[in-house]
Records
---
Amino acid sequence: MQDNTLKNNVENNREISASGNPKMANRLIKGYIIFMVLMNAVASVMLFNTYQDLSTHADPNLPHWPFLFLSIMGLVALAALYGLWNWKRWGFITYLAITGVSLLITMIVLSTVPSPMSLVGLGVFLAVFAPKLKRMS
């Protein structure tokens, strides 16, 4: 009986978690989006605080604008995540573009290597949402 239900779910192109429960897969994706929202909000605040600190102390060796720019990009990423929450294709594309630009600014302008966790996060994002791009409006 359960094999027949799983087969019907696959045929109807519904998400299925490892336990075979389509609702659980949906909850996990929504939980992942909530996690990304929280992390982007925290990162935006931290980057803005760094920008303010650099402006106050006027460090001549480090450019200030990338921190403000990355903070603003974090806020734009929140809008992109709202689009993902509503299964909008523009949310996926916007978040992917913001992530790519942020990694490039980190590597080129700030001359630092991005955290491996940011690359892992990008990989998880692509693994979770790229297969579902066809179903987004």
---
Amino acid sequence: MKALHGADFSAGLRAAIGGAFGYECFEAWTEKGRPHAIFGISEPVEGAAQIFMVGSEALVVDRREFMRLSKKIIGSWLPYTQSLYCWVDVRNLTHVRYLRHLGFHVEQIEPVFGALGLTFHKMVRMSSVTFAKEASHV
């Protein structure tokens, strides 16, 4: 992305993901102006919204601050949907631990997933907000 869009790769990522899949995208920066991560959330479909994050090496340096920020962001998204979910490569143990820390759990294991046919977890966090069901006209 950097080679294609310059130092501010977030614009290219927003155009690619936001335009193609309807995500609302955000970015987090260090105090020194280095990118922490680009992340986003889709419009809910049948009560579930998909989230994503692309992180940088700055997350390792400032991980406590990012964890606090992550909890606030996830908390702000939960009132608008029944659940949040994402797909995680099972080899990415750091990401799995990060999501568990944020209250996600493994709901499904997909042994052959994505372009390379690798094993992925579907990780889900349910909202504590109760949504009214549509009224029946029976």
